[in-house]
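User: Last request for today: this protein with guanosine-5'-diphosphate, please.
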Amino acid sequence: MDVNGEDGAVVGALGSGDIRTCARIISRVERGDPGIVSLLRALYRAGGCSRVVGVTGPPGAGKSSLVSQLIRVWRKRGLNVAVLAVDPSSPFSGGAVLGDRLRMAEHSCDDRVFIRSMASRGQLGGLTKAAGDALTVLDAMPWDMVVVETVGVGQNETDIIRHAEVVVLVQTPMGGDDIQAAKAGINEIGDIYVVNKGDHPEANRTCRQLRDMITLGQHLNPDSSWTPPVIKTQSLLGEGVEELADQIECRFENLRTNPEVASRRARERVRHRTAEIIRDMLDRRLRSEDGQLVETVIDSVVARESDPYALAESLLATMTSRV
Ligand SMILES: Nc1nc2c(ncn2[C@@H]2O[C@H](COP(=O)(O)OP(=O)(O)O)[C@@H](O)[C@H]2O)c(=O)[nH]1
Ligand SMILES: [Mg+2]
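Assistant: Here's the final one, the structure of the complex with guanosine-5'-diphosphate:
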């Protein structure tokens, strides 16, 4: 693949850890700038050296506070950290995102830490696609750890968390019914479970129940080499966070020594990423002149002389004939 001079310079700058370039490129990604594709292609090929950790769970579970504490532990261990906090539920960069900034403010003067928030405002493509691109940028830089924090439980095909190599699922102490509800996500996506707000009286019981559930579901887990641990944390005080960092490390080590599992997971990530890029490409086409084609036949569909399936097929045929 030929990389043009300008892209080459950016790849070089990012490769040497230039934070200003990183911020600038992520802004272009966020705007959905179509001119950035050749750069992203080069970055993907140059990247893949960071460890990408996903932190997910319901809003208010303490993900951002936990990530802030993790940064502290990792910095103490001499690691450089980048964080992408993605909140699909936030239409503007308001509430949650501002909250993240406050929670992570203690790291703002550290040039070995980079924190960026993304919300779903005005991306041309979806937020998931933009987040995937932003991770491609970060992963082409010399960060030891790249964290993607996002809301959810990771069961949706378009989930941002599917970009991560190791997923930490953050829960809070809960009652029996909620535990049942949480069951669906167990073993499906989490490599490590955290019960945050360990100061809550139900915390120990929730940990026990989660452990039982993981043990029960373990025969369904395609990866028998790893039983997801459950860690109790108190992210405001940093309790349990060293252990969490150790377990993240353990899981990466476990994947390194289980190449088949690691490769299956890597292939799954590429599948998701590719599907996401295709959706984005189609979306952009529909907004461009190809989309105008809809207008030329739309009335025949409204009049039921044609149908939306036929319209979709002919549009797709037109688009792919022009690739
Ligand atoms: N009691 C208690 N509150 C916590 C703990 N961790 C976070 N919180 C509080 O929970 C709220 C949500 O935290 P935040 O990190 O923004 O959660 P996020 O939405 O999952 O990122 C904040 O008010 C935190 O102060 C904890 O360990 N114990
Ligand atoms: Mg948060």
